[in-house]
Amino acid sequence: MNQYLELDASSLLKRVAEQVPPALRANVVVIGSIATAWAFRDISGTHSVATKDIDLLLRPAIDAVATAETLGQELFDNGWTPQFTHGREPGNADTPHDDLPALRLSPPESNDGWFVELLAEPPQDQATRKHWRRFQTELGVFGLPSFRYMRVAVHGAQETGFGLRVATPARMALAHLLEHADPDRTPISNLPGGPPRFTKDVGRAISLWWLARKQSPAAGEAWQREWNETLTVLYPDSSAEMKAAVPSGLTSIADYLRDAHAIALNGVLAPHGTTLDAYRRAYASLLQLIDQL
Fold this sequence. Notes:
Helix content: 40-55%
Shape: globular
Radius of gyration: 18 Å
C-alpha cells in the first residue's frame, strides 16, 4: 500500500514559508521530494508529489542548533504538534544522542498528514554518514541529524518567491551518489524484501536524472556545469578525487534497479508511471554523463 500522500509543492512551500520567521528564512533550505516537485513543476503531472515529509535543512552548520531551537519554538507557539516514530519521546540531559527523536511537526488544523522535519547542514569535518546534535525545546531534548554530503545538496540553492530556497536536482543527485560511493547496505526494514539503503538514495539520483532529461534536452550540460562548480568550490583540494568517487554507487545499484524503480514509483516518479525499461535507460544515460566529468 502506498504510504505517501499526493501533495502540491507550491502550496506547501508557501504554507511553510509563512511559518518561518523572516529573520530565519536565509538559514533554511528545502530538500527532498518537495524541492524536486518544485524544480520540475513545468512538467505535466509534477505539480504534486507523493510524500509525507518536508525536509528543512538548517544552515550554516555552526548556527544550526540555535536555528532549530528558535524555529522549533516558533512552530510550537503557532500550534504545530510533534510527531513521534518507533515509540520515541523527547529526551533529557542524560538521553544518548542516538536515542533522541528528530523534531517532526505537523501544522495545526491540517488533515493532510504531512509534517516538516528539521535537519542540519553537516560541519566540514563530518566523516560519519549521520551525526546527531542535541537541542532543547519546551517539550524536552530532540536530535538534529546531519548527513555528510548535504553541503553538496544545498550548495547554490534557488529562490522560490516564497522566501525559502530549494535545493537543485543536480546537486541533490550528486549528494546521493557521493554518500554511497561506499554503499550503505543497511536493510530498509519497512520495504518488501528489505533492499539496502543505498538502493533508495542512488535510485533517487536516477529518478532526478530521468526528470531532468524530460524537462530539457540540455540537461546533461547543466548538470555537469553544476557538479563541476560545486565540487570545485566545496572541495578545492580534492575535486578530482571526489569526481572519481561519483560512479561507485551507480555501479553497485545495477543488481537492484527493479527495487529502485519500485521505490521511485511511490515517490518522485509517482505522477509519471515510468516504466522499468525507461528507468534502465535513464540509469545507463547517467553512467555516460558521469564518464564525461
